[in-house]
Amino acid sequence: AGTAAVASPYAGRALTVAVDEGDAVTAGQVLATIASREYAEARAALTARQTALELARRVEARDAELLAAGVIPAARAEASRAARATAAADLGALAATVGDVTPAPNA
After folding, report:
1. Across 92-106, average pLDDT
2. Is the confidence at residue 44, as pLDDT, over 80?
3. Which residues make Cβ contacts (< 8 Å) with residue 74, sequence separation at least 6?
4. How far apart are CA 62 and CA 68, in angstroms?
């Protein structure tokens, strides 16, 4: 057993504190619930990037079909592939930070 400093990556107001100083805790245990505008905004941005990635995947698939049919030039299909890759990278970068925090059940 030991001690550890606990901090939130987002500014906010503590709504509940589930443990007292000195209590034994386990990995993954909820220690507190925090209301955070920053976190809510980050989650909204994450949802927007997930939607953008899904759209980019659909455009890429459609353009691949159109390229195969000879309807569009290869450059347009390549641009769609690049847009999908960019959307995936954007989502991954944001998810790496937002994903470290578990939202409250009603969030």
Report:
1. 74
2. yes
3. 67
4. 10
**CB of 103 within 8 A of CB of 44?**
no
100 has a pLDDT exceeding 70: no
21 vs 3: CA distance, rounded Å = 10
Instruction: Encode burial over 11-33: b for 16+ CB neighbours within 10 A, e otherwise.
Output: eeeeeeeeeeeeeeeeeeeeeeb
**What is the C-alpha separation between 44 and 31, in angstroms, rounded?**
24
Beta carbons within 10 angstroms of residue 70's beta carbon: 7
d(CA 49, CA 11): 22
Instruction: Render pLDDT for 74-98 as a digit per residue (tens, 0 to 9).
Output: 999 999 999 999 999 999 999 888 8
